[in-house]
């Protein structure tokens, strides 16, 4: 079943959530430590062929929390702040943190592979690959959401999320092939691909989110759902900054409940699941 909610409404940032805040803090702490002992941290915790050859097997994880400068950190954290909250809200905290780390690790392994064949021996640092994974996961789940980007921080450009993700992937591949600049384009590419493919999987199978959005222990899913909707659905184990969204109308709730009766819970789109969740939170 494909996700049929093809609205093209503009994306509005949800705000920070638990793991978005934690990751931003971790990256900032890592940067401060770099200011105090940059060479030591780079040699031991940045990702490099030399480090992997010394069996520093933690590097594909730790390099994510180091950055090449204040500007590098700022750009990554701004992008992460704007889309991370929405992705965490939809996936739930466990899936979200796994996606972030997996995207970063895949990006790092991809960079190592390309570096081996191109004989690039310098270190790689930064959360860019992991952030690209989160950004492109959002695009995969909400392909028709419109996003306005500030090109060069001056020129506003509006496009669909799908277009943005494919543009990031194509640009990263082109830059990687041309070996342009002192940027780990291969890490961006592999991280973006990992996130986008995961987002597409959720888009086509929104029922995968059932275990996050609803509590259905040892009972019929539909019976459990109707019981919980009249009470208050237990929220995931994290607090979300309230998002300025209008609660769904009773007519919309009735339509969704009729759809569940006719087709089952797995027929619901991501937006319909979120509408029911907001309705239960208002009770």
Query: What is the structural class?
Result: mainly alpha
- Total of DSSP H or I helical runs spanning 4+ residues: 12
Q: Rg to the nearest angstrom?
A: 20 Å
Strand percentage? under 5%
List the helices and strands and how they pair.
Blueprint: H1 18-45, H2 49-53, H3 59-62, H4 70-91, H5 93-118, H6 128-141, E1 146-151, E2 155-160, H7 161-178, H8 185-204, H9 210-213, H10 221-230, H11 250-263, H12 270-282
Helix pairs in contact: 1-4, 4-5, 4-6, 5-6, 5-8, 6-7, 6-8, 7-8
Structural commentary:
- This protein is mostly helical and 283 residues long.
- The chain has 2 domains: 18-204, Rhomboid-like fold (Up-down Bundle); 216-282, no CATH class.
- 63% of the residues lie in helices and 4% in strands.
- The chain has helices at residues 18-45, 49-53, 59-62, 70-91, 93-118, 128-141, 161-178, 185-204, 210-213, 221-230, 250-263, 270-282; strands at 146-151, 155-160.
- A two-stranded antiparallel sheet has the order 1-2.
- A hairpin with a 3-residue loop joins strand 1 (146-151) and strand 2.
- Helix 1 packs across helix 4 and helix 5 crosses helix 6.
- The longest helix is centred in the N-terminal third of the chain and has 28 residues, at 18-45.
